Amino acid sequence: MLVTVIVPVYNVEKYLGKCVESIIGQTHQNTEIILVDDGSKDQSGMMCDAIGRTDSRIRVIHQKNMGLSGARNSALDIMQGDAVTFVDSDDTLDTNMIETLVKDMEEYDADIVECQFYEVFGDRVDVFDYLGDTKVYNAEQALLIDLGSKGGSIAACGKLYRRHIFAEHRFEAGRLGEDAFAIIGSLRQANRIVIDHRPMYYYYHRNNSITTEGFSEKTLDEIEGAKRNLEIVEKEFPKAMPGAMFRYDWSYLWVLDRILLGGQWRENKHLKDIMRHIRKHFFRIIKCPYFTRNRKIGAAVASISPGIYRKIVVRTWSRKWR
Fold first, then answer.
1. Which of 12, 28, 201, 307 is the S-S candidate for 158 at Cβ 3.0 to 4.6 Å?
2. C-alpha 247 chain-centroid distance
3. pLDDT confidence bin for 209, thresholds 50/70/90
4. pTM over cut 0.85
């Protein structure tokens, strides 16, 4: 099986080499690697060309900046593989990830195969919740798992898709958290989804400043994406509603964190609406099995005092890098 590996590239000269090395070194060698230089302003574009000259499997696209979705879409338009996977240019893969996902896809006649993630914070590596055996699901069942974050993920990465999944489906351009807008569009094209609960994808959290992790108007895309998914799930995949509702409430807490991590948080014009939602649906959040204990405690503190909750958010963020 020829697998296309799509890597959007934008200002990642520090990380690109390690990322591509982990793809070139895969035990499954029948790959087409498409590096999309999305208008990089550093040396990333030149690095793509240099790396491309070292391996005939690598194709390089240079384009004006169109964002992550635009870069992925450009590569999808020219891909030749029987299946496709996406890798962010500052992440890496286990050596046998593609081989394992291909075997799962062929063994179970699956349209999409998902694996677990390693989360990397500096020198510390955490593993997403591990559920056990590899299993086959339909779209509704997989949505419940992916939206509910219990052994799944809405991320486009860490998944292998048969070519037909993207015959018409594309990523929505200009969005923050674009994967939230794409997850249903991908899964609704699939009859059989396999979730392999072995971690194989390394997702790197970069130690940016608290200010750059703060709020912008684009941050609200997270809520819009979750709301759109909630509406679709209610109509088409009702058994996945607990996961979609969790994701919707989670998006408000996530946006609140971004507001509180930024400066002048008290003056943020969206703070009142965010707090209104959290307080109105507090008991739903507390009763939801998908929220962690710490998240529930955080929601309780936030509903009483955003200022106190802010101290928790800042301290938690700092501890991740110790």
1. 201
2. 13
3. very low
4. yes
